[in-house]
Amino acid sequence: MSARERAAAHLSRYRSIVPDFDAFMEYQFRPLRPTLRANTLLIDPRELAARLSARGMRTSGVPWHPWFLYVDDPGPVGNPGRTLEHLLGYYYVQELTSALPPLLLSPGPGELVLDMAAAPGSKTTQMAQMMRNSGTIIANDVDYRRIGALRSNVDRLRVTNVVIARNDARYIAPGVTFPRILLDAPCSSEGVARRAPEHLSRLTLNQIRSISRLQMALIRRAHGLLQPGGILVYSVCTFAPEEAELVVDHALSLGMEPLEIELPLRTEPGLREWTDERGRTYRFSSGVERAVRIYPHMNDTGGMFIALLRKPEAR
Amino acid sequence: MRCSGSPRPAEPHEVEALLDYLESRFGVPRDALGPRSIFVSGDSYWIFSGDPDIPGDFPCSESVGIRALRPSGKGLKPTSAFLRIIGALATRNVVELAGEEDLLAFMTGGIVRGEFAADPGYVVVKFGGEVLGCGLHSPGLGIVSQLPSHMRASLNWGVFQE
Questions:
Q1: B132 and A88: CB-CB below 8 Å?
Q2: CA distance A242 to A17
Q3: So what's the ipTM on this one?
C-alpha cells in the first residue's frame, strides 16, 4: 500500500462525522497555499507586501485579518522562508488555522499569559504582537530541542516579553495562576497532512489514545493553573475526537464552562457522539458542541479543533 | 525535571556596566533601553519588556526576554538579536555594507573582506540602513559575521538578487 493509500485508509475513520467526506479526502492531498503573518512589531503588512513584491514574491491580503498574506507565487526564492525579510524577522510563515487560537484567547497589552506547549512559537510570537511586546507571556515547552526553535523565533521576531520555561506541563507546580492560558496541545497532527502528507500514513489508534491521555492530563493542569474567571483556549491540529471532544468533555467535568466561538471561517460544532473503528462509543456532554471543528475542504486551510473555556468565578 | 537556569534581575552595578559598554563601544545613549529591564541568567545579560515581577515565580524559567550580551575572550559580546533592537541608535563602530556581494557574505556567516573605519572588535553591521547583526572587525581581514546559524541564509538560496 502506498503512503497515500495508508493515509486515506486512516482518514476513513472520519467518514461518519465529516460533512462532504469526498471533498474532505480530496483536499487532504491538495497542496496548501502558504500564508505569512507580518510581524507588526517591526513592519506594516503593506510595506512587507511591497518589499516581497520587489523580490518577485506575489502576495495578497487574507480578507479577515490585516496581518496575514497569502503567498500566491513565491517567485524566484521558491520557498517563502528564504528571504532577507524573513531572516530579519519581518514575518512568520504561519498556517491560517494556527492563527485562530491566539485570536480567541485575545490577550491585550500588559496582560499575563501562559502558553503551555509553546514551541516552535508561531502562536507565542503572534500573541506578543497582540500584546505589543508588553505584559508577559510564559512560553513553556518540555523538549529541549523544540525550545531551541522557540528561542530562535523569539530572537528573530524581536519579541522581548517572553519568559521561556522548560517543564513537563502536566506537573507544573502551583504558584503563579493565570487569567489566560493557551493549551495548543501536542497531538496526532492529522490536520497538517496538506503540508506533511507522509505523516498520516504512520498514525495508529494506539498512538491517538496515548496522546489523548496526555492531553487530558494537560487540560487538568491548565484548569489548576487558571485564575477563577480565567480563560483557556484548547486547540489541536487534528480531527480525532479522542483528542478533541473527549478532552474538552473532561475539562467540563472539572467544572469548566464552554463559551461560544465566533470565527471568520466556516466551522462545524463539536460532536456529541463518536464510535471508533473498534466499536467503542463515546458520548459527550452538550457543552462540547460549542467547540469548533475546522475542516480543510470548507475554507481551503489546514484542519483544527478549538474550544474556548472559562473557569467559573470562586463562590 | 531538573531546571537548568534561574534568571535574576541585574544588580544596579551590572546595569551600569552594561550601559557603560554600550555607550563607550557604540555611542548608544544610556536611555536607549527605555522601560526594558535587564536580567542575568547563566553568564549572559538578557533584556525583557514584560512585567519584571513574574519570571522568578514560575518554575524552571530558563530565559527572560532575549539574550543581549555575553562574555567572550574579547570582552562583552552583543548578540545579533540585541543589536537589531538597539543598533539603529549606535553612532560608533557601525559598518555599512557596500553591496549585495557583501550582504550575502555576511548573511551566510562568512567574512566581508576589506578595510573598514571601525575599531577592532565587535561592530554593528548594517545594509541599506537596516541593522543585520553583529560582526567582528579584524583589521587586515575584514568583518567576520557573528550571526548564529538560525539567522543565516544558505549560499544556494540566491535570495538577495533583486
A1: yes
A2: 13
A3: 0.93
